[in-house]
Amino acid sequence: MIETQNLVKIYKEGKVRALDGLNLQIKKGEIYAFIGANGSGKSTAINLINSIIKPTSGKILVNNYEIPKDRNKVCSIIGMAPQEYAIYLDLTVKENIQFFAKNYGMSKDMIKSKLDELLKVLRLEDKENTLCRNLSGGMKRRVSIACALVHNPKIIFFDEATVGVDPILREYFWDYFRTLRNQGSTIVVTSHVMDEAEKADRIGLIRNGILIEEGTPNELKEKYGTKTIEEIFIKLSKEVYVVD
Question: How far is residue 6's CA from residue 23's CA, in Å, rounded to a whole number?
Answer without folding.
Answer: 5
